[in-house]
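Objective 1.3, modelling of assemblies. Example input:
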Amino acid sequence: MTIPKINEKQKRRDRYSWIVWGIIIIVIYGWCFSDMKFSHIQESAGTVSKSIFMGLIHPDWAYIYNGSGEDLVSQLIMTLAIAFLGTIIAAIISVPFAFFASRSKNSKYNVTSKVGTFLLTAIRAFPEIVLAIMFIKAVGPGSFAGVMALGIHSIGMLGKLFSESIEEMNHSSEYSIVAAGGSKPQVFALSTWPTILPALISYTLYSFEISVRSASILGLVGAGGIGAPMIMALNTRNWPRVGIILFGIVVMVMVIDGCSGYIRKKLV
Amino acid sequence: MHTSEVPRRSFVKKYHIKGMIVIAILIVLFLYSLKICGVDPSLFVSNIAQFGVLIGQMSNPDWSYFSFIWDPLVQTVQMAILGTTIGTIFAIPAAFLAARNLDHSKVVHGTSRFVLDIFRTLPSLLLAAILVAIFGIGPTTGTITLAIFSFGMISKLFYEVLETVDMGPAEAMKASGASIIQIIRLAIIPQIAGQFCSFFLYTLEVNVRSSTVLGYVGAGGLGLYLQQTIDEFNYSETAVVILATFATVLVIDILSNYLRRKLQ
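Predicted structure (C-alpha coordinates):
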Protein backbone atom coordinates (compact mmCIF):
# COMPACT_ATOMS: atom_id res chain seq x y z
CA MET A 1 0.00 0.00 0.00
CA THR A 2 1.30 3.42 -0.82
CA ILE A 3 0.46 6.63 0.91
CA PRO A 4 -0.16 9.40 -1.63
CA LYS A 5 2.84 11.71 -1.70
CA ILE A 6 2.28 15.42 -1.32
CA ASN A 7 4.02 17.40 -4.00
CA GLU A 8 7.36 18.51 -2.52
CA LYS A 9 7.20 21.96 -4.03
CA GLN A 10 3.70 22.55 -2.72
CA LYS A 11 4.77 21.36 0.71
CA ARG A 12 7.74 23.70 0.80
CA ARG A 13 5.60 26.63 -0.34
CA ASP A 14 3.04 25.93 2.37
CA ARG A 15 5.74 25.88 5.00
CA TYR A 16 7.28 29.15 3.83
CA SER A 17 3.94 30.89 3.55
CA TRP A 18 3.30 30.12 7.22
CA ILE A 19 6.64 31.68 8.13
CA VAL A 20 5.85 34.79 6.08
CA TRP A 21 2.44 35.18 7.70
CA GLY A 22 3.97 34.64 11.13
CA ILE A 23 6.49 37.41 10.53
CA ILE A 24 3.77 39.77 9.29
CA ILE A 25 1.67 39.12 12.37
CA ILE A 26 4.63 39.58 14.74
CA VAL A 27 5.52 42.87 13.05
CA ILE A 28 1.93 44.12 13.38
CA TYR A 29 1.74 43.29 17.08
CA GLY A 30 5.22 44.63 17.72
CA TRP A 31 4.14 47.89 16.13
CA CYS A 32 0.98 48.00 18.25
CA PHE A 33 2.80 47.51 21.52
CA SER A 34 5.89 49.61 20.84
CA ASP A 35 4.08 52.67 19.57
CA MET A 36 1.10 52.60 21.88
CA LYS A 37 1.08 55.34 24.44
CA PHE A 38 -0.62 53.47 27.22
CA SER A 39 -2.29 55.82 29.61
CA HIS A 40 -1.80 54.93 33.24
CA ILE A 41 -4.76 53.54 35.07
CA GLN A 42 -6.07 55.98 37.63
CA GLU A 43 -5.16 55.32 41.23
CA SER A 44 -8.79 55.75 42.19
CA ALA A 45 -9.81 52.95 39.82
CA GLY A 46 -10.30 50.52 42.69
CA THR A 47 -12.58 52.73 44.76
CA VAL A 48 -14.51 53.92 41.72
CA SER A 49 -15.16 50.43 40.46
CA LYS A 50 -16.20 49.43 43.96
CA SER A 51 -18.74 52.23 44.09
CA ILE A 52 -19.93 51.37 40.57
CA PHE A 53 -20.38 47.80 41.66
CA MET A 54 -22.27 48.92 44.78
CA GLY A 55 -24.43 51.13 42.59
CA LEU A 56 -25.11 48.30 40.20
CA ILE A 57 -26.29 45.96 42.93
CA HIS A 58 -28.29 48.70 44.68
CA PRO A 59 -30.05 50.29 41.70
CA ASP A 60 -32.21 53.38 42.12
CA TRP A 61 -35.54 51.55 41.83
CA ALA A 62 -37.54 54.73 42.37
CA TYR A 63 -36.29 56.00 39.01
CA ILE A 64 -38.11 53.30 37.01
CA TYR A 65 -41.38 55.18 36.82
CA ASN A 66 -42.34 58.46 38.45
CA GLY A 67 -44.69 59.92 35.88
CA SER A 68 -42.50 62.93 35.09
CA GLY A 69 -41.64 61.80 31.58
CA GLU A 70 -37.94 61.83 32.55
CA ASP A 71 -38.06 58.40 34.16
CA LEU A 72 -36.54 55.17 32.91
CA VAL A 73 -39.64 53.70 31.27
CA SER A 74 -40.54 56.80 29.27
CA GLN A 75 -36.91 57.27 28.19
CA LEU A 76 -36.72 53.64 27.08
CA ILE A 77 -39.97 54.03 25.12
CA MET A 78 -38.51 57.09 23.48
CA THR A 79 -35.36 55.12 22.60
CA LEU A 80 -37.52 52.42 21.03
CA ALA A 81 -39.52 55.07 19.16
CA ILE A 82 -36.32 56.57 17.72
CA ALA A 83 -35.11 53.15 16.61
CA PHE A 84 -38.52 52.27 15.17
CA LEU A 85 -38.89 55.50 13.18
CA GLY A 86 -35.32 55.30 11.89
CA THR A 87 -35.74 51.69 10.79
CA ILE A 88 -39.15 52.19 9.12
CA ILE A 89 -37.97 55.24 7.20
CA ALA A 90 -34.79 53.45 6.16
CA ALA A 91 -36.69 50.33 5.12
CA ILE A 92 -39.05 52.30 2.88
CA ILE A 93 -36.24 54.27 1.23
CA SER A 94 -34.01 51.20 0.90
CA VAL A 95 -36.39 49.19 -1.31
CA PRO A 96 -36.00 51.27 -4.49
CA PHE A 97 -32.34 51.80 -3.63
CA ALA A 98 -31.84 48.05 -3.42
CA PHE A 99 -33.42 47.46 -6.81
CA PHE A 100 -30.96 49.95 -8.28
CA ALA A 101 -27.98 48.46 -6.51
CA SER A 102 -28.73 44.81 -7.24
CA ARG A 103 -26.93 43.28 -10.16
CA SER A 104 -29.32 42.19 -12.87
CA LYS A 105 -28.48 39.38 -15.23
CA ASN A 106 -29.41 41.21 -18.41
CA SER A 107 -27.21 44.29 -18.38
CA LYS A 108 -23.54 43.92 -19.12
CA TYR A 109 -21.93 46.84 -17.35
CA ASN A 110 -24.17 47.34 -14.31
CA VAL A 111 -23.52 51.06 -14.06
CA THR A 112 -26.49 51.64 -11.74
CA SER A 113 -25.44 48.68 -9.64
CA LYS A 114 -21.89 50.00 -9.22
CA VAL A 115 -23.09 53.51 -8.37
CA GLY A 116 -25.73 52.20 -5.98
CA THR A 117 -23.32 49.85 -4.21
CA PHE A 118 -20.75 52.61 -3.87
CA LEU A 119 -23.31 55.01 -2.38
CA LEU A 120 -24.46 52.38 0.10
CA THR A 121 -20.85 51.64 1.13
CA ALA A 122 -20.19 55.34 1.60
CA ILE A 123 -23.28 55.71 3.81
CA ARG A 124 -22.29 52.68 5.88
CA ALA A 125 -18.81 54.05 6.56
CA PHE A 126 -20.21 56.99 8.57
CA PRO A 127 -20.64 56.04 12.23
CA GLU A 128 -24.15 56.93 13.40
CA ILE A 129 -22.69 59.17 16.09
CA VAL A 130 -21.06 61.38 13.46
CA LEU A 131 -24.36 61.60 11.59
CA ALA A 132 -26.16 62.42 14.82
CA ILE A 133 -23.74 65.25 15.54
CA MET A 134 -24.30 66.66 12.06
CA PHE A 135 -28.07 66.45 12.32
CA ILE A 136 -28.03 68.09 15.74
CA LYS A 137 -26.57 71.09 13.97
CA ALA A 138 -29.37 70.87 11.42
CA VAL A 139 -32.46 70.26 13.55
CA GLY A 140 -31.27 71.04 17.04
CA PRO A 141 -30.64 68.57 19.88
CA GLY A 142 -33.34 66.01 20.54
CA SER A 143 -34.90 62.85 19.24
CA PHE A 144 -35.48 64.19 15.74
CA ALA A 145 -31.75 64.36 15.10
CA GLY A 146 -31.45 60.80 16.37
CA VAL A 147 -34.21 59.60 14.05
CA MET A 148 -32.53 61.23 11.04
CA ALA A 149 -29.12 59.81 11.95
CA LEU A 150 -30.42 56.28 12.44
CA GLY A 151 -32.56 56.50 9.32
CA ILE A 152 -29.63 57.45 7.10
CA HIS A 153 -27.27 54.98 8.76
CA SER A 154 -29.74 52.09 8.39
CA ILE A 155 -30.23 52.81 4.69
CA GLY A 156 -26.61 51.85 4.14
CA MET A 157 -27.03 48.50 5.83
CA LEU A 158 -30.58 47.67 4.71
CA GLY A 159 -29.87 48.67 1.13
CA LYS A 160 -26.95 46.26 1.02
CA LEU A 161 -28.86 43.38 2.61
CA PHE A 162 -31.95 44.01 0.45
CA SER A 163 -29.98 44.17 -2.79
CA GLU A 164 -28.19 40.93 -1.92
CA SER A 165 -31.49 39.19 -1.27
CA ILE A 166 -32.86 40.51 -4.58
CA GLU A 167 -29.80 39.16 -6.38
CA GLU A 168 -30.17 35.77 -4.75
CA MET A 169 -33.92 35.41 -5.26
CA ASN A 170 -35.42 32.47 -7.10
CA HIS A 171 -36.73 33.58 -10.49
CA SER A 172 -38.69 30.46 -11.39
CA SER A 173 -42.12 31.79 -10.38
CA GLU A 174 -41.43 34.99 -12.33
CA TYR A 175 -40.73 32.94 -15.46
CA SER A 176 -43.91 30.94 -15.07
CA ILE A 177 -46.02 34.09 -14.82
CA VAL A 178 -44.27 35.54 -17.87
CA ALA A 179 -44.92 32.26 -19.67
CA ALA A 180 -48.60 32.44 -18.74
CA GLY A 181 -48.73 35.92 -20.29
CA GLY A 182 -48.43 38.17 -17.25
CA SER A 183 -47.55 41.83 -17.67
CA LYS A 184 -44.58 43.42 -15.87
CA PRO A 185 -46.63 44.89 -12.98
CA GLN A 186 -48.36 41.53 -12.56
CA VAL A 187 -45.04 39.72 -12.42
CA PHE A 188 -43.86 42.16 -9.76
CA ALA A 189 -47.03 42.03 -7.66
CA LEU A 190 -47.62 38.28 -7.87
CA SER A 191 -44.12 36.90 -7.98
CA THR A 192 -41.20 39.22 -7.27
CA TRP A 193 -42.67 40.99 -4.26
CA PRO A 194 -44.09 37.94 -2.43
CA THR A 195 -40.83 36.07 -3.03
CA ILE A 196 -38.56 38.67 -1.47
CA LEU A 197 -40.93 40.01 1.20
CA PRO A 198 -40.01 37.51 3.97
CA ALA A 199 -36.31 38.29 3.48
CA LEU A 200 -37.00 42.04 3.54
CA ILE A 201 -39.03 41.78 6.76
CA SER A 202 -36.42 39.59 8.37
CA TYR A 203 -33.61 42.02 7.53
CA THR A 204 -35.70 44.97 8.69
CA LEU A 205 -36.21 43.30 12.06
CA TYR A 206 -32.49 42.57 12.27
CA SER A 207 -31.73 46.21 11.52
CA PHE A 208 -34.25 47.23 14.18
CA GLU A 209 -32.31 45.18 16.73
CA ILE A 210 -29.13 47.04 15.79
CA SER A 211 -30.92 50.39 15.77
CA VAL A 212 -32.18 49.83 19.32
CA ARG A 213 -28.59 49.43 20.47
CA SER A 214 -27.50 52.53 18.56
CA ALA A 215 -30.47 54.56 19.79
CA SER A 216 -29.40 53.89 23.36
CA ILE A 217 -26.07 55.67 22.77
CA LEU A 218 -27.34 58.57 20.65
CA GLY A 219 -28.25 60.42 23.84
CA LEU A 220 -24.55 60.59 24.74
CA VAL A 221 -24.14 63.28 22.09
CA GLY A 222 -27.54 64.86 22.72
CA ALA A 223 -29.70 63.15 20.13
CA GLY A 224 -32.42 61.89 22.45
CA GLY A 225 -33.18 58.62 24.16
CA ILE A 226 -31.83 56.83 27.21
CA GLY A 227 -28.25 57.97 26.59
CA ALA A 228 -28.97 61.49 27.85
CA PRO A 229 -29.91 60.55 31.46
CA MET A 230 -27.09 57.99 31.32
CA ILE A 231 -24.37 60.54 30.58
CA MET A 232 -25.88 62.89 33.16
CA ALA A 233 -25.81 60.18 35.83
CA LEU A 234 -22.23 59.29 34.85
CA ASN A 235 -21.06 62.89 35.06
CA THR A 236 -22.65 63.39 38.46
CA ARG A 237 -21.26 60.02 39.65
CA ASN A 238 -24.78 58.89 40.50
CA TRP A 239 -23.94 55.17 40.42
CA PRO A 240 -27.30 53.77 41.62
CA ARG A 241 -28.93 55.57 38.73
CA VAL A 242 -26.29 54.33 36.26
CA GLY A 243 -27.03 50.88 37.60
CA ILE A 244 -30.76 51.07 36.96
CA ILE A 245 -30.30 52.60 33.49
CA LEU A 246 -27.82 49.87 32.51
CA PHE A 247 -30.26 47.30 33.82
CA GLY A 248 -33.03 48.91 31.77
CA ILE A 249 -30.97 48.90 28.57
CA VAL A 250 -29.90 45.27 29.01
CA VAL A 251 -33.51 44.16 29.59
CA MET A 252 -34.84 46.23 26.68
CA VAL A 253 -32.22 44.95 24.21
CA MET A 254 -32.69 41.34 25.31
CA VAL A 255 -36.48 41.53 25.03
CA ILE A 256 -36.30 43.13 21.57
CA ASP A 257 -33.71 40.60 20.40
CA GLY A 258 -35.84 37.75 21.71
CA CYS A 259 -39.06 38.97 20.05
CA SER A 260 -37.42 39.78 16.75
CA GLY A 261 -35.50 36.50 16.74
CA TYR A 262 -38.76 34.64 17.33
CA ILE A 263 -40.55 36.42 14.47
CA ARG A 264 -37.58 35.95 12.15
CA LYS A 265 -37.46 32.23 12.89
CA LYS A 266 -41.16 31.97 12.05
CA LEU A 267 -40.71 33.88 8.78
CA VAL A 268 -37.99 31.71 7.32
CA MET B 1 -68.47 22.37 -21.71
CA HIS B 2 -66.31 21.43 -18.83
CA THR B 3 -64.39 24.26 -17.23
CA SER B 4 -61.65 23.66 -14.75
CA GLU B 5 -62.12 25.40 -11.40
CA VAL B 6 -59.62 27.95 -10.22
CA PRO B 7 -58.88 27.18 -6.55
CA ARG B 8 -60.67 29.65 -4.30
CA ARG B 9 -58.83 31.54 -1.62
CA SER B 10 -60.27 31.84 1.85
CA PHE B 11 -61.67 35.19 2.97
CA VAL B 12 -58.70 35.91 5.26
CA LYS B 13 -56.25 35.26 2.45
CA LYS B 14 -58.19 36.98 -0.30
CA TYR B 15 -58.28 40.34 1.42
CA HIS B 16 -54.85 39.94 3.10
CA ILE B 17 -56.43 40.38 6.54
CA LYS B 18 -53.26 39.46 8.45
CA GLY B 19 -51.09 41.80 6.42
CA MET B 20 -53.59 44.62 6.78
CA ILE B 21 -53.69 44.22 10.56
CA VAL B 22 -49.89 44.29 10.75
CA ILE B 23 -49.77 47.40 8.56
CA ALA B 24 -52.44 49.11 10.69
CA ILE B 25 -50.46 48.35 13.86
CA LEU B 26 -47.30 49.67 12.24
CA ILE B 27 -49.03 52.89 11.20
CA VAL B 28 -50.38 53.44 14.71
CA LEU B 29 -46.92 52.80 16.20
CA PHE B 30 -45.38 55.11 13.61
CA LEU B 31 -47.73 58.00 14.46
CA TYR B 32 -47.27 57.40 18.19
CA SER B 33 -43.49 57.41 17.78
CA LEU B 34 -43.64 60.61 15.75
CA LYS B 35 -45.52 62.18 18.64
CA ILE B 36 -43.10 60.99 21.33
CA CYS B 37 -40.01 61.99 19.41
CA GLY B 38 -41.41 65.39 18.59
CA VAL B 39 -40.49 65.03 14.95
CA ASP B 40 -41.13 68.35 13.30
CA PRO B 41 -39.96 68.65 9.69
CA SER B 42 -40.40 72.43 9.86
CA LEU B 43 -37.36 72.52 12.19
CA PHE B 44 -35.34 71.25 9.29
CA VAL B 45 -36.55 74.09 7.10
CA SER B 46 -35.95 76.77 9.73
CA ASN B 47 -32.43 75.53 10.47
CA ILE B 48 -31.49 74.92 6.88
CA ALA B 49 -29.25 78.01 6.83
CA GLN B 50 -27.13 76.68 9.69
CA PHE B 51 -26.97 73.27 8.09
CA GLY B 52 -25.88 74.99 4.89
CA VAL B 53 -23.02 76.66 6.75
CA LEU B 54 -22.03 73.28 8.18
CA ILE B 55 -22.08 71.59 4.79
CA GLY B 56 -20.35 74.57 3.17
CA GLN B 57 -17.49 74.49 5.65
CA MET B 58 -17.28 70.74 5.52
CA SER B 59 -16.92 70.70 1.77
CA ASN B 60 -13.78 72.81 2.26
CA PRO B 61 -11.61 70.48 4.33
CA ASP B 62 -8.62 72.09 6.01
CA TRP B 63 -5.95 69.61 4.93
CA SER B 64 -3.23 71.15 7.09
CA TYR B 65 -5.10 69.75 10.08
CA PHE B 66 -4.28 66.26 8.89
CA SER B 67 -0.80 66.35 10.45
CA PHE B 68 -2.45 66.79 13.87
CA ILE B 69 -4.68 63.78 13.56
CA TRP B 70 -2.15 61.29 12.16
CA ASP B 71 -1.07 60.10 15.63
CA PRO B 72 -4.58 59.58 17.01
CA LEU B 73 -5.51 57.84 13.77
CA VAL B 74 -2.67 55.35 14.21
CA GLN B 75 -3.64 54.99 17.86
CA THR B 76 -7.20 54.18 16.82
CA VAL B 77 -6.09 51.29 14.63
CA GLN B 78 -3.73 50.01 17.33
CA MET B 79 -6.52 50.14 19.90
CA ALA B 80 -8.74 48.14 17.59
CA ILE B 81 -6.10 45.47 16.89
CA LEU B 82 -5.10 45.06 20.54
CA GLY B 83 -8.70 45.13 21.77
CA THR B 84 -9.82 42.53 19.27
CA THR B 85 -6.87 40.28 20.09
CA ILE B 86 -7.39 40.44 23.85
CA GLY B 87 -11.11 39.84 23.37
CA THR B 88 -10.42 36.83 21.15
CA ILE B 89 -8.03 35.28 23.66
CA PHE B 90 -10.77 35.33 26.29
CA ALA B 91 -13.49 34.40 23.82
CA ILE B 92 -12.04 31.04 22.78
CA PRO B 93 -12.50 29.28 26.15
CA ALA B 94 -15.89 31.00 26.56
CA ALA B 95 -16.97 29.68 23.17
CA PHE B 96 -15.99 26.13 24.18
CA LEU B 97 -18.08 26.49 27.33
CA ALA B 98 -21.11 27.78 25.43
CA ALA B 99 -21.07 25.31 22.53
CA ARG B 100 -23.94 22.88 22.76
CA ASN B 101 -22.37 19.89 21.01
CA LEU B 102 -19.42 19.37 23.37
CA ASP B 103 -20.18 17.17 26.32
CA HIS B 104 -20.90 19.19 29.35
CA SER B 105 -24.04 19.84 31.30
CA LYS B 106 -26.87 22.01 30.08
CA VAL B 107 -26.33 24.30 33.07
CA VAL B 108 -22.81 25.19 31.91
CA HIS B 109 -23.67 26.24 28.39
CA GLY B 110 -26.98 27.78 29.46
CA THR B 111 -25.32 30.10 31.98
CA SER B 112 -22.37 30.93 29.80
CA ARG B 113 -24.70 31.83 26.93
CA PHE B 114 -26.75 34.06 29.19
CA VAL B 115 -23.65 35.86 30.44
CA LEU B 116 -22.40 36.31 26.87
CA ASP B 117 -25.83 37.67 25.86
CA ILE B 118 -25.54 40.32 28.55
CA PHE B 119 -22.08 41.27 27.29
CA ARG B 120 -23.43 41.68 23.79
CA THR B 121 -26.33 43.95 24.76
CA LEU B 122 -24.04 46.82 25.75
CA PRO B 123 -23.05 49.16 22.91
CA SER B 124 -19.33 49.90 22.90
CA LEU B 125 -19.71 53.66 23.33
CA LEU B 126 -21.81 53.14 26.46
CA LEU B 127 -19.24 50.70 27.80
CA ALA B 128 -16.51 53.26 27.09
CA ALA B 129 -18.43 56.00 28.92
CA ILE B 130 -18.58 53.81 32.03
CA LEU B 131 -15.01 52.52 31.79
CA VAL B 132 -13.64 56.06 31.41
CA ALA B 133 -14.90 56.69 34.93
CA ILE B 134 -12.89 53.71 36.17
CA PHE B 135 -9.69 53.74 34.11
CA GLY B 136 -9.43 57.41 33.27
CA ILE B 137 -9.13 59.16 29.94
CA GLY B 138 -6.86 57.57 27.34
CA PRO B 139 -6.30 54.71 24.93
CA THR B 140 -6.07 52.09 27.69
CA THR B 141 -9.77 52.56 28.33
CA GLY B 142 -10.49 52.28 24.63
CA THR B 143 -8.53 49.04 24.37
CA ILE B 144 -10.33 47.54 27.38
CA THR B 145 -13.71 48.62 25.98
CA LEU B 146 -13.02 47.04 22.62
CA ALA B 147 -11.68 43.90 24.32
CA ILE B 148 -14.93 43.48 26.29
CA PHE B 149 -17.04 44.26 23.24
CA SER B 150 -15.16 41.82 21.00
CA PHE B 151 -15.26 39.19 23.71
CA GLY B 152 -19.07 39.19 23.55
CA MET B 153 -19.24 39.26 19.79
CA ILE B 154 -16.47 36.75 18.97
CA SER B 155 -17.54 34.19 21.53
CA LYS B 156 -20.99 34.05 19.94
CA LEU B 157 -19.60 33.73 16.42
CA PHE B 158 -17.11 31.09 17.62
CA TYR B 159 -19.55 28.90 19.47
CA GLU B 160 -21.80 28.87 16.45
CA VAL B 161 -18.84 27.63 14.38
CA LEU B 162 -17.99 25.04 17.02
CA GLU B 163 -21.54 23.71 16.87
CA THR B 164 -21.19 23.02 13.16
CA VAL B 165 -18.01 20.94 13.57
CA ASP B 166 -18.33 17.47 12.07
CA MET B 167 -17.08 14.99 14.68
CA GLY B 168 -16.68 12.18 12.11
CA PRO B 169 -12.96 12.75 11.36
CA ALA B 170 -12.22 13.08 15.08
CA GLU B 171 -13.90 9.76 15.82
CA ALA B 172 -12.11 8.10 12.92
CA MET B 173 -8.77 9.30 14.24
CA LYS B 174 -9.62 8.18 17.74
CA ALA B 175 -10.46 4.73 16.41
CA SER B 176 -7.09 4.51 14.69
CA GLY B 177 -5.36 5.37 17.95
CA ALA B 178 -4.49 9.05 17.68
CA SER B 179 -3.76 11.09 20.79
CA ILE B 180 -6.07 13.94 21.81
CA ILE B 181 -3.55 16.57 20.66
CA GLN B 182 -3.28 14.91 17.27
CA ILE B 183 -7.08 14.80 17.03
CA ILE B 184 -7.40 18.51 17.81
CA ARG B 185 -4.57 19.43 15.44
CA LEU B 186 -5.60 17.30 12.48
CA ALA B 187 -9.38 16.84 12.80
CA ILE B 188 -10.78 19.86 14.65
CA ILE B 189 -8.53 22.82 13.84
CA PRO B 190 -8.61 22.43 10.02
CA GLN B 191 -12.40 22.58 10.17
CA ILE B 192 -12.65 25.76 12.20
CA ALA B 193 -9.45 27.72 11.60
CA GLY B 194 -10.63 29.45 8.42
CA GLN B 195 -13.90 30.62 9.91
CA PHE B 196 -12.22 31.66 13.17
CA CYS B 197 -9.78 33.87 11.28
CA SER B 198 -12.55 35.25 9.12
CA PHE B 199 -14.66 36.18 12.15
CA PHE B 200 -11.64 37.69 13.85
CA LEU B 201 -11.09 39.97 10.85
CA TYR B 202 -14.79 40.83 10.72
CA THR B 203 -14.73 41.84 14.39
CA LEU B 204 -11.61 43.88 13.72
CA GLU B 205 -13.54 45.79 11.03
CA VAL B 206 -16.39 46.48 13.42
CA ASN B 207 -13.92 47.57 16.10
CA VAL B 208 -12.07 49.98 13.81
CA ARG B 209 -15.43 51.57 13.05
CA SER B 210 -16.37 51.94 16.68
CA SER B 211 -12.90 52.93 17.87
CA THR B 212 -13.02 56.04 15.70
CA VAL B 213 -15.83 57.43 17.84
CA LEU B 214 -14.78 56.10 21.27
CA GLY B 215 -12.67 59.20 21.84
CA TYR B 216 -15.86 61.20 21.97
CA VAL B 217 -16.33 60.05 25.56
CA GLY B 218 -12.59 60.19 26.28
CA ALA B 219 -11.48 56.64 25.48
CA GLY B 220 -8.59 57.57 23.21
CA GLY B 221 -8.21 57.78 19.47
CA LEU B 222 -9.66 60.00 16.83
CA GLY B 223 -13.03 60.69 18.45
CA LEU B 224 -11.55 63.30 20.78
CA TYR B 225 -10.68 65.49 17.78
CA LEU B 226 -14.16 64.99 16.41
CA GLN B 227 -15.59 66.44 19.60
CA GLN B 228 -13.03 69.27 19.88
CA THR B 229 -13.47 70.54 16.35
CA ILE B 230 -17.24 70.43 16.58
CA ASP B 231 -17.28 72.24 19.91
CA GLU B 232 -15.07 74.94 18.41
CA PHE B 233 -17.27 75.14 15.30
CA ASN B 234 -14.23 74.36 13.11
CA TYR B 235 -16.22 72.32 10.65
CA SER B 236 -13.51 72.41 7.99
CA GLU B 237 -11.32 70.54 10.48
CA THR B 238 -14.18 68.23 11.40
CA ALA B 239 -14.43 67.32 7.74
CA VAL B 240 -10.77 66.21 7.78
CA VAL B 241 -11.44 64.05 10.84
CA ILE B 242 -14.49 62.48 9.20
CA LEU B 243 -12.68 61.88 5.92
CA ALA B 244 -9.75 60.33 7.77
CA THR B 245 -12.17 58.03 9.61
CA PHE B 246 -13.80 57.19 6.33
CA ALA B 247 -10.49 56.36 4.65
CA THR B 248 -9.27 54.23 7.56
CA VAL B 249 -12.49 52.23 7.71
CA LEU B 250 -12.42 51.73 3.96
CA VAL B 251 -8.78 50.57 3.92
CA ILE B 252 -9.31 48.14 6.80
CA ASP B 253 -12.51 46.83 5.17
CA ILE B 254 -10.80 46.23 1.84
CA LEU B 255 -7.79 44.54 3.47
CA SER B 256 -9.93 42.35 5.66
CA ASN B 257 -12.32 41.45 2.83
CA TYR B 258 -9.34 40.47 0.70
CA LEU B 259 -7.88 38.29 3.46
CA ARG B 260 -11.25 36.73 4.24
CA ARG B 261 -11.80 35.82 0.61
CA LYS B 262 -8.35 34.21 0.54
CA LEU B 263 -9.19 32.19 3.64
CA GLN B 264 -12.29 30.66 2.14
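Chain A has ten helices and no strands.
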